[in-house]
Give the backbone structure.
Amino acid sequence: MTRIPNTGLAAAIVASLLFCPGEVSSQEGDMQAPPSTAGCADDVPQNAAREPVEFEFGRHTIHGYLYKPATPNGAGVVLLHGSQGLRVDGPRFDPHAIQLASRGYTVLMPNYFDVVSWPRQGPSKGHIEGWASTGAKAVRYLGAQPGVDPARVALWGYSYGGYAATDGSVREDAPAAVAIGVSTGTSVGRPDRGRREIPVLMVHGRADTTTTPYEMREMAANLRRRGATVETVTIDARTHSYDGPVWCDAFQHTRRFLDAHLLPSAG
């Protein structure tokens, strides 16, 4: 288990060592991308630990990282990476996973490409279905961890991970209590099946041209037709890939939504 150091350069060094070649899986063998070193204005003192974990899904072993709070609040969050994989998004998400855990959330960051890696020709519907199923399995795995209430686990995702988190959670057998999608929309896939009443948050950059705000709103409308209560938030992002300050904004909205729906005082 790794105790998290203070923010700044030390956190950057730890994150770059954490997401190193071969650490998570052979499919993610080039995980050397540098982390974001930008701190957020509302950061709290770090009070969490991280450790590598793995769990079984069919014939596959899913690798990832578990962030354990010193004082659990009973809620959990699964963070799903985007199309560039955990080698890129892991370092980006790591400081924010630390902050969530320091606030009491138990956090799991799984490598869903362990089920099937990103295909050169682009993902098919079958690929996306497999990744969504892996996200659901990750929610169940996290819900079985000590200090986590299985009825209070959120599924969060970015880009393709955001599609898997939101569309995958608006289905009758989905386990997540709430779902959050960041920079995702109908350009990723065509959400058209399953129905479930569940709170959903969608966060999107106003100038994103990869997945446009219109495509995000299309997806939000689809999820509402299927029973979800969807909140949409537009943030000041100029591209599909966020920089440090924009990630701070996205995760601030994430925490607000999680606190409102997953903590005992909610409602």
Remarks:
- The beta strands are 2-3, 48-57, 60-69, 76-80, 106-110, 153-158, 178-182, 199-205, 229-235.
